[in-house]
Amino acid sequence: MREFTIGFVPFGEVNTPPEAIARRAAEAERRLRELGYPVRAAAPVTDDEAYEDAGRAVETLEQQPIDALVVCIAGWIPTHAVIRVIDRFRHVPMLLWSLCGWEEGGKLISTADQAGATALSYAMRGMGYRYRYIYSVAGQPWPAEEIGDWCAACAAAYELRDARIGSAGYRDMLLYGTMFDGMSLRRVVGTEIEPFELLEVVQEAEKIPDETVAEAVSFVRAAFEFETECGDEPIERSARYALAIARRVRRRGYRAVTLVDVDGFKKLLGTPPAMIFMLLDRLCGVCVIPENDILGSVTQLMVRELTGQAAGYLEFYEFFEDALLAGVPDFIPLELTLGTPRIHPAAFGKLSTSLLNVSKVRDGEVTLARLLYLDGKYTMHLTRGTARQPRAWEECGWEPPAPQLPSLEIVPEGGVRAFADKVGSQHVIVAYGDVTRRIRNLCDLLGIEVL
C-alpha cells in the first residue's frame, strides 16, 4: 500500500491574534513531524463567516489521501467551524490535540485552547467520530509519548488491513481456541488468513536444490550452539521444509505464518517444526506461532506493527502464588534470546529428532497480550508484568537429561488470580516494556474491548 500519512489542521478563533495561533500551530506541526510520519498540513482555520478558511483546509487535505487527522486546537474556536472541516474526513481516526498557554511577563497567557477542545470533544463524541483527546499543559513538555502512541496505533491499524497470514493446515489437535471467523476478522482487524496444504510444502521442498539445503545446514551450525552432537539429517529435513515455506512467504507476501504442528509436521512428516520456526525467523523475519493459532498470530502482528518487536509467544505451564511460569516447547525468536542461541537434540514421546531451542529468554518489564473471540465479540486480554528467570524445572516426557525449556516467571500486575480470571488461551504474546497504551489505542480504533 502507499505510505501511511497524517493530516494536520490547526484552529483558532477569528478574534485571537493570528500570530499567536500561527506560531504555536507551526511548532505543533514541527513536533508532529519529528515522529517520522509523512504529514499533510493545512493552514490555520478561523471561524470566518463564509467558511473560506475551512474550504481552503479541506482543499489542501484532499489533495492526497490521509489516513489519520490531527485536529490541533490552538485557541478558542466555535465548534461548528471545526466540524465544517473534519466531517469530510470522519472515516479516518482523529487526534483532538489542544495546545496550552505560555508564560510572558511573569504571568500565564491563555488563548482558551481547552475551552475550544472540551466543547469540541463533546460534539465529536456525540457525532460518532473515532478520536482521542490529548492536551498540552502550560510549562510542561509537549505530550510526545502520548501522541506517538496514538500515531503508532493508527499506523498499525492501517497496515493490518493489508496484512496476510499463511496457515499450513487448520485447527491442529482439534483445538477450539485456535479457530477464527474469517469475515468478522476481516471486518474488525482487516487481516486476511490464507490457508495452504502440507502437501504443497512437501512438493515445494522436493524442488529445493541440495546445495541450498547444505548452505542452510552450515548456517544453522554457525548460528546456534549445539549442546550435544547431532547429525546433519534432521537439520537438512527441517531446512528443506523451511526453505519451501520461505518461498511461499515471499511469493504471497505473508507477514506471519502458523503451522499445523502435532497433527501435521510431527505426526505426518516426523519432523518437529522447531528448527523450521527458527529458520523462518532468521530467513524471512515473519512472526511464527505453532498449532494453527490464528488469533495468536493476529496478536503477534498487532504487537509487531505497534512496536517493531519480534512478538514471540509463550505457553503457560504453571500458576504460582505470585507468578506465571510460561515457556515454549520448541523455539524463541532471536530477539527474545538472552545470550547464545542453544539447540538441544532430544526425543519427546515417539519423536526422536527434536531440535529443541533451549536458549534463555530475556527478562525485565513485559506486556502480555492475547486477542480473543467469544460470542461474536473480539476482546483483548492485556496485562503488564515483570519477568524473571525461572526456577529449575522440566517438562515431563523428554528423554533424560531433560532440557529446561525457554521460559520466564512473570509476575502479572494485579496478581495471578485476576490474570487467571480473564485468560483465554494457552498462548500469550510477549512484548518488552510497557506498551499497554499503544495496544489500548489500537483496540479503541478497532472497537475491541480491553479486558
Structural commentary:
Helix 2 (52-61) packs parallel to helix 3 and helix 7 crosses helix 9 (232-252). A six-stranded antiparallel barrel has the order 13-14-21-20-19-22. A five-stranded parallel β-sheet has the order 2-1-3-4-7, sandwiched between helices. Strands 9-8-11-12 form a four-stranded parallel β-sheet, sandwiched between helices. Strand 5 (102-104) and strand 6 (107-109) form a beta hairpin. The protein has helices spanning 18-33, 52-61, 79-86, 113-126, 144-160, 182-188, 198-205, 210-223, 232-252, 261-266, 274-283, 294-307, 416-422, 436-446, and strands at 6-11, 39-41, 68-73, 94-98, 102-104, 107-109, 131-135, 164-168, 192-196, 225-226, 256-259, 287-290, 313-319, 324-327, 337-338, 342-348, 351-357, 360-361, 364-374, 377-388, 407-412, 427-432, 449-450. The chain has 451 residues and is α/β, with parallel strands linked by helices. The model has no long low-confidence stretch (mean pLDDT 95).
